[in-house]
Specification:
Order of helices and strands: HEHHEEHH
CATH class of the largest domain: Alpha Beta
CATH superfamily of the largest domain: YefM-like domain
Number of helices: 5
CATH topology of the largest domain: YefM-like fold
Shape: extended
CATH architecture of the largest domain: 3-Layer(aba) Sandwich
Distance between the termini: 70 Å
Helix content: 55-70%
Strand content: 15-25%
Structural class: alpha+beta
Radius of gyration: 24 Å
Strand order of the largest sheet: 1-2-3
C-alpha cells in the first residue's frame, strides 16, 4: 500500500489527539477515513470535495404521486400554521408593549 493511501486512514484516538493535523490532511487528500477498532466509522472530507459531491452527484428526480400529494398537504397545513403564528405574534407584541 502506498504512503498516500495509508495516510488516508487514521484512528479515532489520533483524530482526538491531532485534530488540526487531520483537518490539514483533507486539503491534500480530499477525504480521511476515521477508524475505530480497525473498522471504518466516519469520513472527514475537504470542503472542496463536499461542494463537489453536493453540486454534481445529486440526481434530479421528478416527485411521484405520493410525494406530490404530501407536498400539497404540507402546503395546506403550512397556511394553517401561518395563521397560528400571526395570532401568537400579536400576543407577544401585546406582552412586549406591557414592559
Amino acid at each position: 500500500m502506498g504512503k498516500i493511501i495509508e495516510s488516508k486512514y487514521i484512528s479515532a484516538t489520533e483524530l482526538k489527539n491531532k485534530t488540526k493535523n487531520v483537518l490539514d490532511m483533507t486539503d491534500d487528500l480530499w477525504e480521511v477515513y476515521i477508524m475505530n477498532n480497525n473498522k471504518p466509522k466516519a469520513v472527514i472530507v475537504s470542503i472542496e470535495r463536499y461542494n463537489y459531491l453536493n453540486n454534481y452527484n445529486i440526481p434530479e428526480v421528478e416527485p411521484d404521486e405520493f410525494e406530490i400529494n404530501a407536498i400539497k398537504e404540507y402546503e395546506k397545513q403550512k397556511k394553517d400554521w401561518t395563521l397560528e403564528f400571526i395570532e401568537w405574534d400579536e400576543v407577544f407584541s401585546f406582552l412586549n408593549s406591557l414592559k
